[in-house]
Structure formats: structure tokens, C-alpha cells
Known about the structure:
It is built from ten helices and 13 strands. With 461 residues, it is α+β, with helices and mostly antiparallel strands.
Amino acid sequence: MNFQRTVMNYHSQLVQAHRDYQIQQGELHLQFLQQRELALKEMTAALSTSAGTSERLHPFQPVGPSFSRAELEVLASGKVSGILGSRFEAQDKNAHQVRMPKPPLLFADRVLGMEGEPGSLGLGKIWSETNVSESSWYLHDGCMPASLMIEGMANPVALLMSWLGIESHNKGERNLRLLGCEFMFHESLVKYNTTLTSELTVDGHAHHGDTWITTFHTDCYAAGQKRFTMRKGQVGFFTAAELIGSRGVNWDAETARFHADARRDAPAVVCEHRSFTKEQVSLFSKGRTAECFGTGYEAAFTHTRSPRIQAGKMLMIDEIECFDPQGGPWERGYLKAKKAIQPNEWFFLCHFHNDPVMPGLLQFEGCLQAMAFYLAGLGFTLDKDGYRFDPIPEVLYDLQLRGQAPPTAKEIIYEVFVEEVHGGDEPKLYADLLVTVDGLKACYCRRMGLRLVKMEDGREG
């Protein structure tokens, strides 16, 4: 009997070992299939990009030097002369020089060409491409966020200005800052499996003493369609003292003009809250609308994909200090949100090399998230399961950036001054946006528009 029991136990162990082996092999095979699928997708995307270039899916005709992604990463933090040539050796010793951001905020995957005499401080053009893939870290509901789209379209001006010789003026003592632009989205936000091709043109330079300002414009295409326009772009080159001495944006909500007769629909729900904690904001970023807003928002419990803002490191709001649909200096609606800045924020590590500063477009991102929160607070997302927030297209918006948020900054305040509200089938919000960094008015956008649009298949729109 003991022998029989021993045999049966041994048999059971063999069966279990075989099952474990089958499970392990199954998991390995699944990993193989997943890796093969990813490789096929990347190959297809590469072939699509190559075909798109040959079929002229954009109106540009790039000329001059081109650079790979690997070369762009060297230019973002390494020895510039190793890529641009020996005439740039003099700036290699400078700890501070004009560069594009490092990953993950380096959005260009390749530069197709550059036009302009190197070192001339003249005019020029740069053509670049960005692959928005299914694995892109920044995707939100299958799309590239509006703020990062603008950031990506402005970044190449840094490389072009380096090529044109701005370091001969800066001498390692000045850093680049985006001062503002006018921008327009065409259609909805860009979805994954899209290659963006852009042309950035330096229009001119102005300088008074050592202060140097460069103006530029950008056009961006995807699959033969124009997707984004930037006009009146401005970058300046400033010393540390000049940046600290900035006077900020010259705008005051108390005296500002607004359309007092603009449409302003009543909320679908009267919210019981006038402020929201960090936990409640986090719930909203995860699509848990009913838990965030409470009584009156129970319909959101039935949602499979509630409209939401970015979570994780792209969540730019800590808490909502004031939510008042009747408040604000215009008495048309107001929201105030804030974010505590930590010296180890992820964006300081990549924007820029030896010049850590929060991108102005991430400040703007915080405002867009505040606008989305406001629309949801009005109850306009409750019958919009499977929708997402999008900038209202075919409108030229004016964005001003006049202050920075370095690692020493303590707090950012976002304010939404409501001008116009639409409920109904396509809820919309128009508002003036103001960002304040430690008391300095750093970012302002006049009459920004945000809407709710339906996603296809619950992921993309």
C-alpha cells in the first residue's frame, strides 16, 4: 500500500509539473506573439511613413541636412559639434546652450531637412516628423494631448536657431523661452498610428541691446490633411537675472473686456461641492465621475468610458479651490485650481538640459484640465458616455507666456474665467485662462474653447 501511495504521489507530482510546464510555455508563446505583433506594427508604421513621404502626403520640399532620432537625442544633451560639424565646437564647452528637450518631451522622431546658412543668424526653415504610435507614452483616450501637440510643433525652433548660430550671441549665458503664439487645430486631436510632418519657418529677428527675440510660424500635416497651424510664434533668449525679473502677463480679469451677452446655458446638475480635494480630482482623472462629484451625478455609474482628464504624471492639478458656476469677476462662472511644485518633477529632468524649467505648455495643459473639470461639474458629461474633451477647431487662439516655473517654484494657480457655455448635444465652454506661478502671472489665453466629442470604439475620435 505504501508503494502504491508513493507511486500515486509521484504521478500527481508529474501531472502538476507538466501542467506548470504547459502554463509556462503558454505564457512564453503569448509573449512571443505579443512581441511579434508589436514588431509587425512598427514595421508597418515605418513602411507607411516611407510610403507617405514618397506619395507627398504633405506640401513640403525639405532640403539640407537631416537627422535621425538618435542624432536628435545627442543634440538634446550631448556634444553638438559631433552632429552639426566642427564649426559648432566652440559651443560644446557651454553648459547652457539652446537645445530641444530631452525625452520624453522630445517629440520629433526625425528631421527631414534644414534650410538656412549655418552661423548666419539669418532666416531659415526646419522640417520634422513625429510618429504618434499606439505605444506613445502620452496618449490620452487614443489621442495626442493638445498641449503636447503645441509643444512638439514649437520645439524644432531651438535646433534651427542653434544651426543659425544663436550661441554666438548667447555665449552660454542665455536660455531659450517660448513667449507665445497663435494656434489653431484643424479637425479633432491627432489619433495614434499617425505621422505628423511639420514645417517651421523663422520669419525674423529683433534685438535691443543684448535682448534677442525670434519670430516663427509652423504648419503641420498628416495623411495629406492640414492638422495644426501656428502663427506669430515668439522665442526669446534671456539671462537668469532677466528671467527672474520678468513682470509677467499684463492682464487683469477685473478690467478685462468680455462678451456679456454670450450664450450661457444653465447647468444640467447643481453641484453640492464648491471645492474638491486631491483625491476627488484623482477620481475624475480615472473616469470615476460620480464618486468625484457626488449627489446628482449617479448616472455616471452606468458609464463604460466617462470623459476624463489625464492621470498619472500628466495630471497637472492637485485640487480645486473654487468651483462656482455663478461666480468670478464677470459673474458668469469661475474655477480656481492649484498644483504644488516639487523640485524633482519629471519634466525638470528633460526640459531642458542644464536648464530645468516647467514647459509653459504644461501650464496651459493644467488650464485645459481645469476647463474639462468645469464642464463635468456642470453635469454635461452625464449623458456623454464614450466622449472626450477636445479643443474647438478652426479657431485661432492667442497664448501668452511671460513667466517661468523653475524647480524653486512652490505653487501654480490655474484660473478659468467663463465667458460662454453651451449644453445640449455638443457641450462647449469658452473661457479666458490665467496661470499664476508664486504670485507672477505667467500664462494667459484669451477665449479658449473646449468641447465634448464622441470617441469611436470608445478609444478614439
